[in-house]
Design goal:
alpha+beta, Dodecin subunit-like, 1 helix, 68 residues, 3-stranded antiparallel beta sheet, 59% strand
Length: 68
């Protein structure tokens, strides 16, 4: 039987929401193995002078924990 754990992460990008999601996965995969899915919970954009300057996401990342 496998156990699935979930962590919540916050990531950003200056380019797009999609890039922010990729950044979340890229950073999480440095310390977490067996990632199965990523669920984007919230989107946020920071604005300056009526222009979007950065995109952010709050995401939940699910991963399997190997049995020892």
């Amino acid at each position: 039987m496998s156990i699935v754990k979930v962590i919540e992460v916050i990531a950003s990008s200056e380019n797009s929401f999609e890039d922010a999601v990729h950044n979340a996965l890229k950073e999480a995969s440095k310390s977490v193995k067996n990632i199965d899915s990523i669920y984007v919970k919230h989107f946020k954009a920071n604005v300056k002078d009526n222009k979007i300057i950065s995109y952010g996401v709050n995401a939940k990342i699910s991963f399997r924990v190997n049995e020892s």
